[in-house]
Design brief:
The chain has 162 residues and is α+β, with helices and mostly antiparallel strands. The chain has three helices and four strands. It has helices spanning 2-24, 87-97, 144-152, and strands at 57-63, 71-76, 123-130, 133-140. The chain has a four-stranded antiparallel beta sheet, covered by helices on one side. It is globular and about 40 Å long. 18% of the residues are buried.
């Protein structure tokens, strides 16, 4: 037991010394970080939200929703308007889901493992411009990933839960 302890203690001291050396070699953080300047490239920063633009305009076409919400609707944000029955709430849902550096309309990555469940025959296509970027995205409820992707954008997309 004493021999094991005598071998372990020097190793611990060496590891602690190396960790302390690594920590003390880090540069000190400034006392107050300056506010980041707005980026001219909306999806390259780390901030939530996006630059509001008069070009935030989407066309949503929906088929197969049992609630009868099928049709084509226009959504404008900032200020909200258009023919969408819940344009203001749709804009707020988009704002809530928009993150700098991530496309809110992007499909699930191909290597994502999704639950094998069926959410119904509803399909949707969203086209237009959001955060200064072109949008042309399709949605369905064919598996767990697609159902979650759809549900994140309710009420831009109608609530299609059965």
């Amino acid at each position: 037991m004493l021999q094991v302890m005598s071998l372990t203690l020097p190793r611990l001291a060496l590891a602690a010394g190396a960790s302390l050396a690594a920590l003390t070699s880090l540069p000190a953080a400034p006392a107050a970080a300056a506010a980041p300047s707005p980026s001219p490239y909306p999806f390259l920063g780390q901030h939530r939200g996006h630059h509001h633009s008069d070009t935030d305009h989407l066309t949503v076409t929906v088929h197969g929703v049992s609630s009868g919400a099928d049709g084509t609707f226009e959504v404008r944000c900032h200020p909200s308007g258009g023919s969408h029955p819940a344009a203001g709430r749709a804009c707020r849902a988009l704002e809530r889901e928009t993150r700098w550096g991530r496309d809110v309309f992007a499909p699930a990555p191909r290597d994502t493992m999704c639950t094998m469940q069926y959410g119904g025959p509803a399909t949707a296509r969203v086209t237009g411009t959001w955060a200064g970027r072109p949008v042309d995205s399709t949605f369905d409820r064919s598996n767990g990933c697609e159902i979650a992707r759809w549900d994140r954008l309710v009420p831009l997309l109608p609530d299609a839960r059965a």
